[in-house]
Recover the amino acids of this structure.
């Protein structure tokens, strides 16, 4: 007999209890137990219940109040006007529904919007008196916040003085922790044996609430201001974007990615554009905010007890979620590395349903103490496979046992080994079935020989029937053989054979990467192919010659020599050549990569490059021998700064690194290609 469904009144009471608990954990303790999306789902369920049963709605309901509460650690401060929360939209339909509600409130179709990145941080109000910083206050419950003035002064991007004095100004903004600072903070905490923060937002919130402002300064916080709340002594602009421009002219940081749109369709395009750039930004965003631009129309639209009617937050698919670890499996990769993988209760994350999360290696499992049965917070931020961020210890079952990595390979039973300077335990058996399978998939992968159709299911059948063993045996397959396999008709078989044939002409660096040498990734393969030009020359290069190649380190050089020094490797390469697989680099590419002014240089791209996608710019630079890095450091030789360049440009200026602007990019690449 299934359990009885709770009455609406009981479910509403339970939802209120859960919401209050999670609000306290999120806003006060800075230690969330569930993801933002799961919290939003609780609020949406309660709102729907109260809408269906108006008698259940009370003035104290969480749906009637802004999230958060003021901490007792700091003096309370009452905001002159409330810092309201925002209503959420999760789809185009919900965005259009918001626009329709706004149209009803105004009596006409709204036009003129500002779209802003929804930076995931801590909302604050900052006051300036006669141009000088007077006070910083957290949002708190929207009515009363915490006076954190001393800590506000420790945030480098919030100036002590405006660029020109005004009698009074209140600006409201979002304090956040850049991704790089967040990673460094968690690294230091883990080294000290302290728990890592779940996300940059909570790390920033904790930093703003520290008693010692020196510690706040060490967190490298930043701020973008998103509204001019009040100003005296100057004419207040009639539009929201005009207010943002005034803040910028007064020296306050305003997000350069803000954009004004005339229509809702243009706003939708801006939302999509921000989402496409989400993973490349130096800070975390969880959506985009759409605001009516005309301040008079904002006032006419008004507010509810919790939300302004003239603004909405369009939330992107969640990149974090909580779920339960069903078991911890161990996978064997192509190099023999044993990788623990958490098998999860399926959960929707970043728009897709996931059931696995990587645990990287044995040390990672021990450090995070992940166990079967645990409730965990998982994250998918630019990665194909999600990773476990933290364990929710409060929900751990009493019988959850510690994970122990097996001492024998789960595929072939060979005793695993772990070298002194390695984090991974490995299966040393060259004939391990799991290693052979993963090597075949790697060989056929897109960055390798790019053989479409040669995926998991087909490789499994080919190996099980003994139709392939080494890479060269792939080129001995024929359509008739493939057509006899499960789920392979004549047309599908012919397509795969055509892909195999086409792969013979792939450039040398693709083949070198596909062979799966340890420590030889895509970049190293390109460098080696460009430098030596042929597989024969790479195989003949001694250790000193390899080490003389820019970007080739001791591990890569030793791995190349170890591979080509084996008789099996030499025989494999010979058989591949006999099968018609190309063994040379493109001559023009090899020549330009050696002689161009970009050869051997480390280059960082930032901002939008007109007429050139980030991927295309990276590919062209690499063809000319340059290396594209993700972040600016003392080792950076050149920064190419497009439109809306951010913190990378600022750091390049601080370090005195050469900077080229968007108009110089095409000329730079063209000149390098002609060398």
């Amino acid at each position: 007999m299934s359990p009885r469904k709770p009455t609406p009144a009981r479910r509403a009471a339970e939802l209120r209890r859960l919401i209050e608990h999670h609000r306290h954990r999120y806003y006060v303790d800075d230690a969330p137990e569930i993801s933002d999306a799961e919290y939003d789902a609780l609020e949406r369920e309660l709102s729907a219940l109260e809408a269906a049963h108006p008698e259940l709605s009370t003035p104290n309901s969480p749906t009637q109040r802004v999230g958060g509460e003021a901490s007792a650690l700091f003096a309370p401060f009452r905001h002159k006007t409330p810092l309201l929360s925002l209503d959420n939209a999760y789809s185009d339909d919900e965005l259009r529904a918001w626009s329709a509600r706004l149209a009803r409130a105004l009596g006409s179709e709204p036009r003129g919007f500002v779209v802003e990145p929804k930076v995931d941080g801590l909302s604050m109000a900052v006051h300036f008196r006669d141009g000088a910083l007077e006070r910083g206050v957290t949002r708190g419950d929207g009515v009363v916040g915490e006076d954190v003035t001393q800590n506000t002064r420790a945030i480098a991007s919030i100036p002590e003085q405006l660029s020109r004095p005004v009698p009074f100004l209140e600006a409201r903004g979002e304090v956040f922790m850049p991704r790089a600072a967040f990673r460094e903070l968690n690294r230091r905490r883990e080294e000290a044996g302290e728990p890592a923060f779940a996300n940059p937002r909570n790390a920033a919130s904790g930093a703003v609430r520290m008693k010692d402002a020196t510690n706040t300064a060490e967190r490298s916080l930043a701020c973008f201001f998103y509204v001019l709340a009040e100003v005296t002594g100057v004419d207040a602009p009639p539009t929201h974007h005009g207010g943002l421009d005034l803040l910028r002219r007064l020296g306050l940081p305003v997000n350069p990615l803000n954009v004004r749109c005339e229509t809702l369709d243009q706003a939708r395009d801006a939302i999509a554009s921000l989402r496409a750039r989400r993973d490349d930004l130096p800070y975390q965003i969880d959506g985009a905010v759409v605001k009516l631009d005309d301040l008079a129309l904002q006032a006419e639209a008004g507010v509810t007890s919790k939300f302004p009617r003239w603004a909405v937050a369009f939330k992107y698919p969640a990149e974090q979620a909580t779920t339960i670890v069903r078991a911890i499996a161990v996978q064997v990769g192509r190099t023999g590395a044993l990788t623990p993988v958490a098998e999860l209760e399926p959960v929707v994350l970043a728009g897709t349903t996931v059931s696995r999360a990587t645990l990287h290696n044995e040390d990672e499992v021990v450090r995070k103490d992940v166990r079967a049965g645990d409730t965990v917070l998982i994250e998918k931020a630019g990665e194909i496979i999600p990773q476990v961020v933290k364990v929710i210890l409060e929900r751990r079952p009493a019988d959850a046992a510690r994970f122990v990595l097996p001492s024998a390979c789960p595929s072939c039973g060979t005793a695993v080994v772990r070298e002194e300077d390695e984090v991974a335990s490995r299966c040393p058996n060259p004939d391990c079935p799991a290693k052979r399978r993963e090597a075949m998939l790697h060989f056929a992968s897109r960055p390798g020989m790019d053989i479409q159709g040669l995926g998991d299911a087909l490789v499994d059948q080919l190996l099980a029937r003994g139709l392939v063993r080494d890479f060269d045996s792939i080129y001995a397959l024929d359509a008739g053989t493939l057509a006899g396999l499960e789920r392979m008709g004549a047309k599908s078989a012919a397509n795969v054979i055509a892909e195999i044939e086409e792969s013979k002409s792939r450039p040398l660096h693709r083949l070198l990467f596909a062979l799966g040498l340890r420590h030889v990734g895509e970049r190293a393969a390109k460098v080696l192919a460009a430098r030596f030009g042929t597989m024969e020359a790479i195989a003949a290069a001694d250790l000193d010659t390899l080490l003389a190649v820019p970007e080739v380190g001791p591990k890569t050089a030793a791995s190349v020599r170890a591979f080509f020094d084996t008789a099996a490797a030499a025989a494999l390469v010979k058989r591949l050549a006999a099968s018609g697989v190309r063994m040379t680099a493109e001559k023009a590419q090899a020549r330009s990569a050696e002689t161009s002014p970009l050869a051997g240089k480390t280059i960082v791209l930032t901002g939008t490059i007109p007429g050139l996608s980030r991927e295309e710019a990276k590919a062209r630079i690499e063809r000319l021998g340059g290396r594209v890095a993700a972040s600016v450091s003392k080792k950076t030789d050149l920064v190419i700064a497009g439109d809306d360049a951010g913190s990378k440009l600022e750091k390049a200026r601080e370090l005195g690194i050469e900077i080229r602007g968007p108009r110089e990019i095409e000329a730079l690449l063209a000149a390098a290609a002609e060398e």
In short: The chain has six domains: 8-64, 76-315, 320-395, 433-503, 508-585, 597-674. Residues 8-28 form the longest helix (21 residues).
